[in-house]
């Protein structure tokens, strides 16, 4: 399953990597790809979306 979220606050490659790293370590995530140009995060797998939102927020960004 692929889930795409909008993420506010990413402005560079470092931001993308920070979001990807925060989400990639969650149970059920097999891949995570952030793109600051489209403000999106694509997640492969079957993670708990509440945990994804919490991880993104803990990393300093705003999921929608």
Automatic annotation (TrEMBL):
Recorded GO MF terms: metal ion binding
InterPro entries, per database record: HMA_dom (IPR006121), HMA_dom_sf (IPR036163)
Pfam families (UniProt xref): HMA (PF00403)
CDD domains: HMA
Domain HMA: 1-64
Superkingdom classification of source: Archaea
Protein's recorded name: Heavy metal transporter
